[in-house]
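Recap slide: F-box domain-containing protein, sequence and predicted structure.
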Amino acid sequence: MTLANDIPLELLPIILGHLQWRTKDLASCALVNKVWHKYANPLLYARLFLRDQTRLIRVFRTLKENAHLAPLVHVLEIRVFPFGLQAESLEALEESILHTLQKAVNLEELYWTRTGSLTDRVIPFLPVLPRLRTLELTGSSRFYTPSSVGKYLLDPKQTPQLKHFSILLPDRGVVAELPQWCERMGSKLESFSILCQHSALITDSILIEASQHLTGLKRLSLAGCKALMMPGVMALLKNSKYGIQDLAIEGLAMPPDCLPKIAQHLDQLHSLSLTFPRPAHSITHFWNHLTEMMESLPNIENFTLYTSSWNTPRGTSKMVTETGLEDTWATHHKITEDMNLKNMQEVESRLYESQKWTLGF
């Protein structure tokens, strides 16, 4: 206790700041004395990553019973949900969640991705979230009506500061409502992300319709949309009045010869993430168009290229044998050497579910 009291007060926030991701340690620090509690408690509740069912129940119960804690919450993740609860207990939990959100006036990021946790019992009663900037939702609408999300949660009056929106694994009902959601969020949205799992539900026509409303985009991420080709992506790029600065197009149906074409609308691009094309396209064909694309991007700084088990391009194994690219560093060297990118600060070959051949181009 003497050592804790001897620490200069001006150093305590700095010390505790290094523990902001270590919940158990922060909880222990908050119990040292009143001074430590004053500085540790805000850090303890600032980021709530709820990935354990028991902890989720306890945390929301605590926040409801101690209303002064909810304004400390800046980031909230609901990744799990206890579906085995009895009806009364489930109702009490949902009430605690709503009560917390009503008091969480400083909430900036909300990740509500557990299917079944976001329901029509909750959505109509969601409060105004005046400082919410980032929202990530589950795309499974088995337990909610997609139109209600747009009406209540995405209403500009409910989330006036919303800048970043992500949807995970959208189903048919959510996809049909997606253009209306985009209309609600409008030009204030700066970041838009769709993550699918090799789904054909997201089409060019859907994105073309949505692009009319997403004129303020600076960051775009589209992954696993296997039916998506160039028109939908091009519409989003063209309608961005500020220019896309960060682009991830992964696992799409876009052929390699489209890469130089979309580059014409990426003069503000700083970061790019791509996957290898589908097996129907040769690696040589892909490499030539990728080189042409990269050389026309004046501000590119970060580049990520990876492959997965479902998009093995033809000829890759042969090229590794011919070029002798044995490791990732050799790959980095070849990218920068072939493309002569003066502004490139970082080149990554992220290889998921891959074999040795993925290290070469």
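Residues 40 and 207 are 45 Å apart (CA to CA).
The two ends are 60 Å apart (CA to CA).
(End of recap.)
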